[in-house]
Amino acid sequence: MSEDQETDDPFDGVQDLIEQLQGGVANTNEIVEAAEKVQLDRDQLEQFILDNQGTLIKDSVDVLQIMKQYVATAPNAEDIGSFAELLKATSTAIDNLTKLHTSNQRVDTQVKIKQMDIESKKAINDDNNLMKLVGTREEIFKKMLEDSITVEAEVTDVQSPTEEST
Questions:
Q1: Domain count along the chain
Q2: At what angle do helices 77-131 and 42-73 cross, to 10 degrees?
Q3: In the predicted structure, residue 57 carries a pLDDT above the cut 80
């Protein structure tokens, strides 16, 4: 009878359960401490957001697939409400990630356009500077005299046709 009483004792698994719960609290405390230690600077912030947002979306989609089957087999008002809220949160997270991506592309495009604008203005400035004469009036006159060609010409007095007839 003592063997039957030992196997039927309802408190046999209590110690194991207590140990599991205590271990779970320790694990939870470790996770909370690790989360508190996360410090990000501006450079790491974007990568942190992308990594965690991606993980969140992937996990949410996985849970949505599971909940979809569960709700389809046994519809319950609370389950349908939870499914709708999870669906809304997942779509919002995807939308936010899309907005971040679009914003980054817009910034990259604006930077490229600004660089092209600066390069074109620089090229126009260089062309304008080549066309401009640089120097004082005296320097320009001296250069013209140096570059001029002396033309030998003989000046003769020519009478106009009206003078010939008189």
A1: 1
A2: 150
A3: yes
